[in-house]
């Protein structure tokens, strides 16, 4: 497992590519998969707000399109002094590709702030275990 600070460096690098002309809220993320590969993403806004893509969804889509299916850890960073937690939709998206050991690190451009398990962020989640019998 790579150091979470290395994940933050990649997430901050991705955040620099964020397309956020409306909210001015730049987000970057970096995922380490179970195989050790890294995938980064940034938020991409759209004038039709419902079409906006969160940084987490961007990175997960890149990861899945390359054939990866398990998130080992993910870092989410913002430029603001506070910490932004993944939105509800992203928590569900992260859950889809998580294991019980998956961790989510959150912070800002000043650095790491906190770590959560996916079950802390999305308790009683609906997932494939509800569908596969």
Q: Topology, pairings included?
A:
Blueprint (H helix, E strand, L loop, with lengths): L3 H12 L11 E7 L4 E5 L12 H11 L5 E8 L9 H9 L6 E6 L2 E7 H4 L6 H4 L2
Parallel strand pairs: 3-4
Antiparallel strand pairs: 1-2, 1-3, 4-5
Could you explain the architecture of this structure?
There is one protein chain. The chain is an alpha+beta fold. The chain has one domain (4-131): Cytidine Deaminase, domain 2. It is 30% helix and 25% strand. It has a five-stranded mixed sheet with strand order 2-1-3-4-5. The protein is globular and about 45 Å long. The chain starts with a helix and ends with a helix. The mean pLDDT is 95.
Compressed to H and E, one letter per element, the order equals HEEHEHEEHH
- The CATH superfamily bears the name Cytidine Deaminase, domain 2
Overall average pLDDT: 95
Specify the CATH class: Alpha Beta
The number of distinct structural domains comes to: 1
* Low-confidence sequence ranges: none
Overall geometry: globular
Quaternary state reads: single chain
**Main structural class:** alpha+beta
CATH architecture: 3-Layer(aba) Sandwich
Number of separate helices: 5
Proportion of beta-strand residues: 15-25%
CATH topological fold name: Cytidine Deaminase, domain 2
Q: What would you report as the Rg, rounded to the nearest angstrom?
A: 14 Å
Secondary structure tally: strands: 5
In short:
With 133 residues, the chain is an alpha+beta fold. The chain is built from five helices and five strands, in the order H-E-E-H-E-H-E-E-H-H.
Descriptive keywords:
133 residues; alpha+beta; Cytidine Deaminase, domain 2; 5-stranded mixed sheet; 5 strands; 25% strand
């Amino acid at each position: 497992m790579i150091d979470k600070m290395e994940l933050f460096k990649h997430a901050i690098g991705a955040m620099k590519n964020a397309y956020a002309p409306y909210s001015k809220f730049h987000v970057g993320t970096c995922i380490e998969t179970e195989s050790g590969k890294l995938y980064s993403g940034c938020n991409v806004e759209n004038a039709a707000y419902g079409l906006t893509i969160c940084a987490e969804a961007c990175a997960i889509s890149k990861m899945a399109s390359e054939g990866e299916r398990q998130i080992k850890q993910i870092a989410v960073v913002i430029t603001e002094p506070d910490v932004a937690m993944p939105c509800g939709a992203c928590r569900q998206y992260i859950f889809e590709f998580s294991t019980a050991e998956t961790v989510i690190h959150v912070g800002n451009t000043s650095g790491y702030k906190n770590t959560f398990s996916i079950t802390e962020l999305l308790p009683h989640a609906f997932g494939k275990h509800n569908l596969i019998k």
